[in-house]
C-alpha cells in the first residue's frame, strides 16, 4: 500500500540530508584550508613584538559544524566560518574572502565544488529510503 508523506515527515528527511551533507563537507573543508609550512610563524603580529595564535591548534583542525537550523521552512547547517564570526578562528573569513591587503584563498567555494556530487548521492539515497518506506 502506498501512502503520501506529510510535511513533518518530509522535513525530517531533509534534516537528515542536511546533517549528513554537513558531516561530509567538514573533512573536505579541512583539506582545502591553506596551512603554513611553519605554524610558529602564523598568527597576528603584536605591537612590541610577539604574535597571537589560536590556543586550540590550526583552524583546519577546528572547522565548525553547526547543528541543523531552520530558515524559511528549510533546514540548513553551517560548515566553516561566516563573515560575522568572532570566534578564535575569526581570521579565516579574511583568508577565504580576502581584504584590501590579502588575496582571497576561496576554500569555501572549493569545498562546495568537491562536495556537490557527494551531496547529490546523499540526498538521492535518503529520498529513496524514504520513498521505499512509504511504499511498504
Model description:
By secondary structure, this protein is mainly alpha-helical. The chain has one domain (7-33, 55-135). It is 45% helix and 7% strand. It has a two-stranded antiparallel ribbon with strand order 1-2. A hairpin with a 5-residue loop joins strand 1 and strand 2. It starts with 6 loop residues before the first helix and ends with a helix. The relative contact order is 0.18.
Short description:
This protein has 136 residues and is mostly helical. It is built from 3 helices and 4 strands; from the N terminus they run αββββαα. Helix 1 packs antiparallel against helix 3.
Topology (elements, then pairings):
Elements: H1 7-32, E1 44-45, E2 51-52, E3 69-71, E4 74-76, H2 92-97, H3 107-135
Antiparallel strand pairs: 1-2, 3-4
Helix pairs in contact: 1-3
What oligomeric state is this?
Answer: single chain
- Name the helix and strand elements from N-terminus to C-terminus, one letter apiece: HEEEEHH
How much helical structure, as a percent, in the residues?
40-55%
Mean pLDDT: 88
Strand arrangement within the widest β-sheet reads: 1-2
Termini distance?
A: 6 Å
Radius of gyration: 19 Å
Largest sheet: 2 strands, antiparallel
Low-confidence stretches: none
Derived structural class: mainly alpha
Shape: elongated
What descriptors fit this protein?
two-stranded antiparallel ribbon; mainly alpha; elongated; 45% helix; 136 residues; 3 helices
